[in-house]
Amino acid sequence: MKKDVVFIVKTVLVFCALSAAFSLVGMLLPEKGPLSNPSGGLNIHEIGGHILWGLVAGAAFLSARYAIITGLFAVLIDSDHLIALLHVDALTRMSHSFAFGAIAVVVLMTVFGRKDYRLGAAAFAGVLSHLSFDTFAGSDGRFPMFTPFYNHQIIFQNIDWIYFEVTAVVIIGIVTLLVRRKEIQVQSTVTK
Fold first, then answer.
1. How many Cα atoms are found within 13 Å in the side-chain-facing hemisphere of 170?
2. How far apart are CA 82 and CA 70, in angstroms?
């Protein structure tokens, strides 16, 4: 139990720092503009909704450890808004992109174990769950999904939330099946 808590805290801190650091790239992009104060968006609905959406997707892991990580990743992706506190011009919501999701997968799996495919799936699913809740809540269903390659916002309708969430669940489900299959193969060779 203590080992799980330490692992969760470490992975969440790295993910949060990575999201904030990735947003700094937004200062270098030509489409940058003034950023609004991020404190206005902090409320229980926003925080709780993102965590819940991440937990729902993370339930497909059949593991409390990875479900909790996915829920926390889904809310902490918003640490990319912290750059606004610097009062600089930048591209907003940099971590709300597939590039960030891919970078998070690579960094987390490199730092915490190359064979931990569930952690990689949690990182990418956390991004998708976050996009899902933002779209569902109607607060802002526009994201720079392909930044830094295409830096314009892509707009989604409220109903599109389901596609993001289902994709997150499918990714987690596939990874869970593959990991369980590998565990069963290892156990069967050990018992022979």
1. 7
2. 21
